């Protein structure tokens, strides 16, 4: 009996640190390291970043720039991940980046830092749902086209209105699934992890074996070519910068583990492990996937031909089709592997919806958005922020409406998602870099003297990443080729900062403690 009572009194280390920071445990803390890693891995996803941008990045500067670009971006991503892991170990809260920014920036700048960080992150995550829904619809469009006879055989290419229906349909399905208990979400994300690991291994191994011919290593690793007649970009350096975008878009999302720390056992230790493990797995598998696609190219120029079997709309689908049809005179194998890739988009969108809802919940808990009392409500039975889930789904659906008229919707949504999501990383990392070391209370994962140099490299890399996603991606600049991200972000962030200057700064104080009596030793 005493033993049972003793076990009942044991407080989880993550919950203990949460209480010290002034928050009581409200969400159900039952996720293990493996489940947290699965959700983080699913949010980054193996296929969803690379697949939709592979064709355009390959066209900018050829295979060598694309292949080695992944290695370069992976290298700098480790600096960001390590910096965030240290902070996550110290602040295992659902608000994650937003909470980190408030406490690391101190009482004077904390409210503004958390305000900027929270809104950047919310914008990035909600737009991130849109990128998954759009790219998932794009893969589904290719599957339908190949199943009905291909573009050259009278197949059905989904029109804009049906594409929008698929986009909204995926968004609604993710919202419904996220309304169920946390165990359901965690279970689906575990499936997602194995889906991507097994499916990714099958594609990486099978595709080059099935392809009748493969490109030589000299082509894959050293061949550089620009396409100014198509992209309008004659500068080789500029082309290389744009070819890196696929890697920069793919290698983020590892903060998903931080969003779930209030629901994770031993979050001060398992949160950082999940962040770094996700980066490691995706870095290796992502490069292998890029190599598999590039080695399996049959005819580079034919990939972009609007009269090819996939209507020139989706380069990875054409590579898969060429490989299987060339070997077996059938598109069945390509369709199966496209379904594997589509599953990755489905699970990725589900995970990003989970993360987005947690950020909206944390911000509304601290009264940082209009009608906060509505969005911070927890479902009485399932113990998940259901209202926040549906708010994210509604905004994401609205983002997709321009699909009916505009050709560059995906470019804009991708840029907004990347800048918002990654830009949110910069605020707490910069605050950690400039704060006094004696004011920082380290968790189990601590960098010590290496913290500032790591944070500096991470911060500069994030600034560079945000800058390049604002650049024009095609010339000459016309209405149908213009990157709308600067305008969209400028208007959105301008209104948010105007709200801050006129009103929010008077009442918004950042994270609001919901434990009146808390221990404090002067350290955050």
Automatic annotation (TrEMBL):
Protein name from the UniProt record: Amino-acid permease BAT1
Q: Name one Pfam family in it.
A: AA_permease_2
What does the UniProt entry say about where the protein is found?
A: Membrane
The answer to whether keyword Metal-binding applies is: no
Q: Which UniProt keywords apply?
A: Membrane, Transmembrane, Transmembrane helix, Transport
Molecular-function annotations in GO: transmembrane transporter activity
Residue ranges annotated as transmembrane are 33-55, 67-85, 161-181, 193-211, 231-252, 273-297, 334-363, 384-404, 410-434, 454-472, 484-502
Report membrane topology: Multi-pass membrane protein
Q: Which Gene3D superfamilies match?
A: Amino acid/polyamine transporter I
Organism in which the protein naturally occurs: Panicum miliaceum (Proso millet)
Extract one GO cellular component term from the record. Answer: membrane
GO BP terms, alphabetized: amino acid transport
